[in-house]
Specification:
- The chain has 350 residues and is mainly beta.
- 5% of the residues lie in helices and 25% in strands.
- The chain has 4 helices and 23 strands.
- The strands form 9 sheets. Strands 10, 12, 13 and 14 form a 4-stranded antiparallel β-sheet that branches. Strands 6-5-11 form a 3-stranded mixed β-sheet, with no helix packed on it. A 3-stranded mixed β-sheet has the order 17-16-19, with no helix packed on it.
- Strand 13 and strand 14 form a beta hairpin.
């Protein structure tokens, strides 16, 4: 079934068969390094453990692509309070998450986002200053049972610009009692060696430090804030599967056995709250997905839902971060969608 009329349908394709635009994920849904790919649309426009010594600046050598962090005490650690977040160029990256002064924020592979945990303290934190949004917070009404500060009370004054979803911002309590900013549950840091706006000298340091994108993924993997009126479907790893269909933020897409391919969705009402349908908007951007396999059906409420290989696509409300597959096999009728619309479990058995 063909797509409805659109103002502008953009279909982006992978430049390299082995490279994917999107964060690779480990089995627990945490982001891991991925290969870069140059992506272009058809009209030519660009598509969209604890810290060790070497992780924060020692004499441990690094490769050319992984510059070392400076020795302790060098560089100028940011001292101003965080007041704004926006998307801006930094180093060779065009989609860096930066503060009000244009300095990029970083994430650390040895941290965790499930649950939010910072593993950079002491000397590490001197070279990678955590982005602190509240100090000396003890047992007050601002701290919930997970040691997280009430986001509304603590970060409400941070101005977000350019498509950043403020609901993705949070905090994690550090060992000293201070509260560190998180984005999609990943703790955020500055780099002491970034002495001015637009620098990204910490990118790739020791293979564990990366400039963050707007949604907490690695900026190098290409994530950009969604453009209003645009639906994005991309191919990337999720859970145990090496390649599945995801949305633009890396959330896994699913198919439902009780649907009728190319014809109807049988998930409405309460079902659609748990399994939000992927709705067709005016523009469509595809990364690693065959345009010929994408279509639409008309839902009971009159909205248009995207299909892949004829099967209507959904997200799962209990997937709280990119790369998770918590909806796989739910009720024996919900399945992760492969890039051709088939069940990922059948495409990648075992």
């Amino acid at each position: 079934m063909s797509l409805p009329r659109t103002r502008n349908i953009l279909v982006a394709m992978m430049a390299l068969a082995t490279a994917m635009l999107g964060a690779a994920c480990t089995g627990n849904g945490q982001a891991a390094p991925a290969n870069k790919a140059t992506v272009k649309s058809v009209n030519g426009s660009a598509g969209y453990g604890n810290a060790q010594a070497g992780d924060y600046g020692s004499s441990v050598p690094t490769s050319e692509s992984s510059p070392a962090a400076p020795p302790a005490g060098e560089g100028g650690a940011p001292t101003a309070q965080l007041t704004a977040l926006k998307i801006a160029p930094a180093g060779s990256l065009s989609n860096a998450l930066v503060d009000q002064n244009g300095r990029p924020l970083y994430r650390f592979d040895k941290d965790s986002n499930n649950p939010s945990t910072s593993n950079c303290d002491g000397q590490c934190a001197q070279n990678w200053p955590p982005v602190i949004v509240a100090n000396n917070v003890d047992n007050s009404n601002n701290v919930n049972i997970n040691n997280n500060v009430n986001v509304e009370n603590v970060i409400n004054n941070i101005n977000v610009i350019g498509g950043i979803d403020k609901s993705k911002l949070g905090v994690v309590k550090r060992k000293d009692g201070s509260m560190q900013l998180t984005v999609n549950k990943w703790p955020m840091y500055w780099f002491a060696k970034d002495s001015g706006p637009g620098q990204a000298n910490g990118e790739g340091a020791m293979g564990t430090w990366w400039v963050a994108a707007f949604n907490g993924t690695k900026a190098k993997d290409g994530a950009m804030p969604p453009t209003p009126g645009t639906t994005v479907i991309r191919a990337m790893p999720a859970g145990k599967f090496p390649k599945v269909a995801t949305d633009g933020e890396g959330f896994t897409l699913y198919r439902f056995d009780k649907d009728v391919p190319n014809k109807a969705s049988n998930c409405n009402g309460e079902c659609a709250k748990a399994w939000p349908p992927v709705l067709a908007q005016d523009n469509l951007m595809l990364y690693g997905i065959d345009r010929n396999l994408v279509g639409t059906i008309t839902r009971a409420d009159g909205s248009k839902q995207l299909t892949l290989g004829g099967w209507p696509l959904y997200r799962y409300a209990k997937d709280t971060a990119a790369c998770q597959t918590n909806g796989e096999a739910v009720g024996g009728v919900w399945w992760t969608a492969a890039v051709n619309g088939k069940k990922a479990k059948d495409v990648f058995p075992g």
